[in-house]
Amino acid sequence: MARGPYSHEPARLEVILLGMQGLGKPGVHQSQIAYLGMPRNILGAGRQYMDMFNNLATSPVGDRLLKPHRGTPQAWGKQLLPKTLIEEAIKKGTVDFWGTGGHEEPTEDQYKKYTYPLPKKEGGTEIHMMWTDTPCRITCWGFGNDVLETVRDPKIECVVAQHPWLENDVLTADIILPTNTTLEVNDIMLNLRDGDSFQTVVLMRQAIAPIGESRSDYEAVCAVAEKLGMLGEVTDGFSEAELIKGVFDGMGFDKIVSWKEFQENEYLVVPYEKDWQRHTAGWYDFYKDPVKNPIPTPTGKLEFWSESLARYFPDDEERPPIPVWVEKGITHDERISSPRARAYPLLVMSNHGRWRVHAQCDDIPWTKETVTGKIRGWDGYWYEPCWMHPSTAAERGIKNGDIVRVYNERGSVLCGALVWERIMPGVLSVDHGARADFIDPDFTLDRGGAINVVSPKGLTSKHAGGQATSGYLAEVEKVSMAQMEEWREKYPEAFAREYDPASGLRFSSWIQEGR
Amino acid sequence: MGKKVFVIDVTKCNGCHNCQIVCKDEHVGNDWSPIAKPQPEIGQFWIELTEKVRGTVPKVKVAYRPHLCMHCDKAPCMDACPVEGCIYKRDDGLVIIDADKCTGCRLCVDACPYENVIWFNEDLNIAQKCTGCAHLLDDGWSEPRCADACPTLALRLMDEDEAKALIGKAEVWRPELKKEVEPRVYYIGLPKKFIAGTVYDPKEEEVVIGATVTLTAKGGKTQTATTDAYGDFWFEDLKDGLYDLEIKSGKKVKKFAALDTAEADINLGDIPLI
To answer: What interface predicted TM-score (ipTM) does this complex get?
Structure first.
């Protein structure tokens, strides 16, 4: 239910359920384990882990490093634009939004209205150029077709992309800087906010030499900076090695282990607090004494009726002060009660791919050949699985293993039918992140299974800037041999691309001339 | 070393696929002749994590089972192989196809009664299968890559003596073949069938919580369950056969006769109790 139309409402309703059960009493808690891990470590429990980043910010290398990490609003300031509104902003020339959409902004930022672009006298301007780092918006964000269409708008004079692989969004770039994978660089990696129970710091040694002309992101950006006479400004005079050590020092790891020892071991496990048991579990303190231990809301209590929303968005029917199920609203029309459901009666559920991380690792043979990895089509192509219930399939004459077309007004995506009881009737499940492989030059028919190409665009709701890429209407039909033959005849180039079933499209699949 | 057996407790298998993938890591692109030549990049599964879907929405379970060569004591592949000493059984019980001696006749592929155990490599013109990572065991490893990578200890290669108690409560895959081939792979917890359902009161439009459900097997043995907060009940690990089922809540009774689990797990669906 997350990342779908109006998905903030089910999330808020879950909080209300916790309230009804007595938040904080033994067995009734909510915790963000993905970032904080367990148990408490010596660098910080609760929100103290942010102190580490604050410490880094004040260290010599901090500004240099945190700018790209900490999210645009704090790093660059002034003119901002959430990722979910890029297409709207470019096409319409101006857009209003609430909350920057930045990852770790305070809640209060959501109530603030922003306008793109800022007035000229404040230094505002429309976007003319895009520089993108490891992009996968066409397969991981909303309405991928629109992403591709908008990037070709005459307003966008130049697109620069830096990425290790020639795939997805990179195919629309004017200039491509081939960058390294983590295996080709020396680096320091912090697993502090990534779901590890025991948080770790790892020194990564370059495992292989960079392939071809690829360079590290840092080197690539510095090379451009040098041409522009901005090298000093970009590096602040720090070398790569100095930055790596700077992270170590700036975050206080030298209090746990010496730099020398860290270099020898190449990893450090952040020790847990010796007296971690003194911390009360979850929201227990709130439960025992809510006055002394308030929740960070205006009233200090778990609010069934949100005081903030009542104050700032009293008439917002898509995210009202008390959460509701939103069947129909101005932002989305994706419920099965919609008139659109006559043509598109099924709901697409789209989750994080089991064998991928977003768009990464879609080309690994050993995971692709698992049962849930890819479906081998009768034409030799390995298709992204589309799970469906036997009854949904039978209604459409679809059998397990068939090549199918999942579609709505936004376009079509070809998938392989995975027909079984592991999904309820009326739902199609296609995970996001598959590598796009368009058959037609207008980007309306994708063979790679990049389902987000047909997902809703834009926001979760009018005032909530998240994406809505799961829980939307579509239909599915079997692709006949005749239909496939028709496409082959109409778009021979698409079917002539070099393709290795085990790993998918190759670099050469997209190259017309040159090496 | 003494004789080894594979002991696989599927109740601990969560379907992670580590076994399937590390086997490829060990053998794809690596030549361990004469124990094994490189496995092709894709297409062979010397160990395969099989997934069996049981039941129907919403009473669905997925059974995970690693499937590999059974390293039979009376291996039909050994009997079928025309090349002397090409397929042999080691002292530790593992059955090996000598990668240097194999002539590619495929008789072993046909002879093996199990599915997806012996694979034919067209490029190298040899038959290939699980070796139990014999080359590693000979190098001091105590278990093959698959068992080493199993995070839940579901999959283990054990000394036959130490595993006696476990073998006692285990079963083999395709038990009808046991006498004929004598496999060395033992499974604990292979799921049998379930009978499940949801009980509701159509007048109140509510599920019925706390109803008593009694299941009677053909021989007369009974077991009971109570419907939970969702009105659900489950009877699991049932042998194939005919069962009678009775649901009781207060004065309301509903009966099902001769439910046959031989074909498949049974989801009785939403059951109105009036």
So the answer is: 0.94
